[in-house]
Amino acid sequence: MTEGTATGNAIADRIAARLALYLGPHTGRVAVKTFSIKALGRGPETLTLEDVPALQAALRPMLRTFVGRSQCEIVLQQIARELGL
Amino acid sequence: MKQRLLLAVPVLFTVALVLVAGVVGDSARPTTLAIGNEAGKVIALVGCFIAVLVFERGDYLSRAWSTTGLCYLLLIVNDAVGAAPVASRMSVHEMGAAQGALVVAANVASVVGTWMLARAWSFAGLEDSEDDDARVRRRVVFAGTIAAALAITAWPLVHDVRDLASGHLDAIISIASDVGDAICLALVAPLLLTALALRGGVLLWPWAMLTASGLAWLVYDATSGVVDALDITSTGWVVFAEGLRALACALTLSAGLAQRIAVRFADQPDVPAA
């Protein structure tokens, strides 16, 4: 992701970058924002490591739709691994 | 990158069909085009089947691709019913009823399958992420494709409704086909908007190729409508129209392959994030 599109939050940017491989950079970023607000009631710039499981749960239905149940879990595991969880 | 190469498949298939149909003699051309027509449906069915297999049973896109594939399967069965060895064992009435039921069912499957693929964006919950500008853009593009779909399918639909009104009950089959075509053509808009939203990601390709297939069907319907309406028998026009049908079907194969590659992308062990 480029500087201009990053949230400034390393965790949110990391997750958006992983999603961008599938959804493209714009939708990857928008997905993190949308599901952060849905799951946590606040924007991606406030994300902490403690928020990640709730965000992953919120992202799950979206990922399942596009890549199916088993591949969705692989993507969520990749996100967790990248964040050291 | 690998997905981009899949664009070569429909181009090669179409060019091969057009070239062969162009060089064979007039007597062999109808058979050549009929073989190309059936081959197109078979490869589209294979594409749908490849996409279904990459998902687990019950996954949303597994159901969408299965339903789309069912359309091609029913069309192949319909053609088989119309083939001489089967047709000779049925009365005209039985054959009309069987083919009518198959064409109506295929059109229903086509509409439902295309609608599910077009609706993946909303089903995934991403519609909520759109701002007002994006919603307006989505509605404008949708309205544009509905207008184009109606412009293309209105003439044959009016013609078929007149036939029905004058007592030709078999016109019901054509009406079902016209209505199915109109709805599927209108659904090109959400497919296109989904592809645009996914640009830069591996999931772009299945939706881009489904959009291209929908556009090829759009031009095919327009071309074959003109050919039928003006009773054009020119070889060039007929081959062109059949080439478009082959392209639309082969793009469905590429879309299925692209879907498989996109989903399997997660299996690559150390794909670095951007």
What does this structure look like?
The complex is a heterodimer of chains A (85) and B (274). Chain A has 85 residues and is an all-alpha fold. Chain A is built from three helices and no strands. In chain A, helix 1 packs across helix 2 (25-40) and helix 1 packs across helix 3 (52-82). Chain B has 274 residues and is an all-alpha fold. The two termini of chain B are 15 Å apart. The A-B interface holds A 1, 14, 17-18, 20-28, 30-31, 33-35, 38, 61-62, 64-71, 74-75, 78, 82 and B 54-56, 58-62, 120, 123-126, 128-129, 197-204, 262-267, 271, 273-274.
**N-to-C span of chain A:** 22 Å
Uncertain segments of chain A: none
Approximate shape of chain B: globular
Largest sheet of chain A: none
Q: Please provide the count of β strands of chain B.
A: 0
The end-to-end span of chain B amounts to 15 Å
How many DSSP E strands of chain A?
Answer: 0
Largest sheet of chain B: none
By helix and strand content of chain B, what is the structural category? mainly alpha
Low-pLDDT stretches of chain B are: none
What is the fold's blueprint, element by element?
The complex is a heterodimer of chains A (about 80) and B (about 270).
Chain A: H1 10-23, H2 25-40, H3 52-82
Helix pairs in contact in A: 1-2, 1-3, 2-3
Chain B: H1 2-5, H2 8-23, H3 29-54, H4 60-82, H5 84-87, H6 92-118, H7 120-123, H8 132-165, H9 171-186, H10 188-197, H11 204-229, H12 235-264
Quick tags:
heterodimer; B: 274 residues; mainly alpha; 12 helices
Summed up:
By secondary structure, chain A is mostly helical. Chain A has helices at residues 10-23, 25-40, 52-82. In chain A, helix 1 (10-23) crosses helix 2 (25-40), helix 1 crosses helix 3 (52-82) and helix 2 packs across helix 3.
